[in-house]
Amino acid sequence: MTIELHNVSVTFDGVEKVEAIKNISLTIDHKECLAILGPSGSGKTTLLNVIGGMLPLTNGEIFVDGQAIHRLTASELQTFRRTKIGYIFQDYRLFDQFTVLENVMLPQWPYDSKKTNEEKARGLLEDLQISHREKAFPSLLSGGEKQRVAIARAMLHQPDILLCDEPTGNLDADNRNNVMEIIEEIRKQGITIIIVTHDQEVAKRGTRELFIRDGELASG
Ligand SMILES: Nc1ncnc2c1ncn2[C@@H]1O[C@H](COP(=O)(O)OP(=O)(O)OP(=O)(O)O)[C@@H](O)[C@H]1O
Fold first, then answer.
1. How far apart are CA 157 and CA 104, in angstroms?
2. Residues 115, 109: contact at Cβ < 8 Å?
3. Less CB within 10 Å around the terminal CB: N or C of the chain?
4. Does the Cβ of 16 fall within 6 Å of ligand 1?
5. CA diameter of the chain
6. What is the annotated signal peptide range for this record (predicted)?
7. Average pLDDT value for the chain
8. Domain for residue 200, yes or no?
């Protein structure tokens, strides 16, 4: 899916006013793996959340495959996120009270039959070589295993866009490479990927690097 941002700004209006991203215009092509780099607080996660339809824009427009995301109602946005977006995080965000298999199935629980959901989840766990731990609880897994489970969960509904916020931030070099290989494979399936990272090695493995400083694009 092609993602287009036109003059996008996000300002947080709290005790202090923070202009988290300022006037960003950007096109991300179908099947790109875009790496977003920048110092802490520069606006990387805000940009990711805007693309994922999780944050309202203060100004500007955002189109995903021509659909005007900034004009969607709350319920349309919910459908957009649920069907089009997969999200993975540095801290995995697995639920410790559920098994690996249940964690992967959870987001689709209301939308698929148990049998279909279970089959899809098992298929993904196999693809990601973690099916032997399907009955384990997440607290027993290594960081690399947890991230593979989180990737399976993010991919279960076959999203068109995978958003990755520091996906390798808690991993050692071997696990980092393993997760990046998985992400590359996912891109080859036709999915547009955006990775926020501090890690130059991770960024290099994308198809393009983009730098943000003080909420503005430094290059791209
Ligand atoms: N909900 C919020 N309310 C107020 N300010 C916020 C909010 N979310 C983010 N900010 C501020 O917006 C700016 C950009 O934050 P953001 O999380 O996008 O940066 P980042 O580049 O992802 O940082 P890091 O690399 O440390 O995660 C920061 O100054 C942050 O404090």
1. 10
2. no
3. C
4. no
5. 50
6. none
7. 94
8. yes
Would you say the CB of residue 46 lies under 6 angstroms from ligand 1? Answer: yes
pLDDT digits (tens, 9 = 90+) for 71-114: 999 999 999 999 999 999 999 999 999 999 999 999 998 889 99
In a domain, 198, yes or no: yes
- Dig out the tokens for 164 from the structure: 């990755």
In a domain, 74, yes or no: yes
pLDDT digits (tens, 9 = 90+) for 159-176: 999 999 999 999 999 999
Residue 167, ligand 1, Cβ within 6 A: no
- 70 Cα to the center of ligand 1, angstroms: 20
1 confidence band (pLDDT: 50, 70, 90):
confident
pTM: 0.94
For ligand 1, is residue 43 a contact (CB within 6 Å)? yes
Ligand 1 centre to CA of 197 (Å) is: 14
What is the side-by-side strand order in the sheet with 161-165? 85-89, 161-165, 192-196, 33-37, 208-213, 216-219
Closest atom of ligand 1 to 43 CA is 18
Kindly state if the Cβ of 12 falls inside 6 Å of ligand 1.
yes
Instruction: Judge if ipTM > 0.90.
Output: yes
Q: What angle do CA 126, 204, 158 make, to 5 degrees?
A: 35
Domain membership of residue 12 as a residue range: 3-94+155-218
Give a yes or no: residue 133 inside a domain: no
Count of domains forming the chain: 1
The domain that holds 202 is classified in CATH as 3.40.50.300
